[in-house]
Design brief:
heterodimer, A: 230 residues, alpha/beta, 6-stranded parallel sheet, 45% helix, B: 60 residues, mainly alpha, 2 helices, 80% helix, elongated
């Protein structure tokens, strides 16, 4: 699966959250990072053909941006207007994006609890992002559960580490976030991790960890089978 | 229970010894995943016991 992350941020170098996410990108050819403001200036035309080719070459399309006035920065809106054209993204004959997956990675400055009826913002993120859900619907893409990062600067180190993993899973993991899907992803990552960076007994411990995850999965499958047959 | 504590201790040590930030994050995620697995196992065992003791089955 090939993932395209389209980032829109006018001052990405000064953004702690965006820099953290950029440093968390898995090192694989299957992930392409495309920062719009780093590619085009406000006065420069967008290379529509190149952008459309990029979209066509990937299976999962992610928009990553800070939530500005309940929407994206202006460059991403301009990109949508100029790239997602009739005859490419939608239309009677062509649906080049159909069957792909589409998701949002949002960085939000306000606490999560305010995004609900009765909260300071009054509406849930799911309600405020309906224009993006409508794009997915119209172009035939499957809308994924978003990754919404609330108040990054206040996150503790272990919370940031959990975010790093959730971000990597959003980029390279299965669209399902079931326990089984997450087990498979973690096992794959543990198998690929650089064992030279672990301590002296790290190799042995890693094997124990892998076998624990697998043993637990066997137990879970057995229990599930028993429960199904009750 | 002892087995669980042992693997958590090993993972904590692995976390401390690792010299790479992304690897530390992965080790932390592996620990949380294993905790979640054990919790799910306990819940399912409980559900199984509950089903065995269910009045619905007493007539069979």
């Amino acid at each position: 699966m090939k993932t395209l992350v389209i980032i829109s941020h006018p001052e990405i170098d000064d953004s702690g959250s965006q820099q953290y996410l950029l440093s968390s990108v898995p090192q694989t050819e299957d992930v392409t990072i495309h920062h719009l403001e780093g590619t085009y200036s406000a006065s420069q035309p967008i290379d529509v053909e190149k952008e459309q080719q990029l979209l066509a070459a990937h299976d999962r399309i992610l928009f990553q941006f800070p939530f500005y006035w309940y929407s994206s920065p202006p460059m991403l809106k301009r990109w949508q207007d100029e790239v997602l054209l009739e005859g490419f993204a939608y239309g009677k004959r062509t649906h080049r994006l159909s069957g792909k997956e589409f998701g949002l990675i949002l960085v939000v400055g306000v606490p999560e609890k305010e995004y609900q009826a009765g909260g300071r913002e009054g509406f849930a993120i799911s309600a405020l992002t309906t224009p993006f859900q409508a794009i997915a619907r119209k172009t035939g893409m499957e809308y994924l559960k978003p990754l919404v990062i609330f108040q990054f600067p206040y996150m503790k180190e272990h919370e940031k580490m959990a975010l790093l993993i959730r971000y990597q899973q959003m980029l390279t993991g299965d669209k399902s976030d079931s326990l089984k899907a997450r087990e498979e992803w973690i096992v794959e990552q543990l198998e690929q991790t650089d064992r030279n960076l672990l301590g002296a007994t790290g190799d042995l411990v890693l094997e124990e960890v892998l076998s624990t995850i697998e043993d637990n999965r066997l137990t879970l499958d057995e229990l599930e089978m028993l429960l199904d047959n009750m | 229970m002892e087995e669980q504590e042992w693997i958590y201790e090993q993972l904590d040590k692995l976390f401390e010894d690792s010299r790479d930030y992304q690897q530390k994050a992965l080790i932390l995620a592996a620990k949380k995943l294993i905790q979640e697995q054990y919790e799910r196992i306990e819940q399912m065992k409980g559900e199984l016991d509950g089903t065995l003791w269910s009045p619905r089955s007493w007539n069979e």
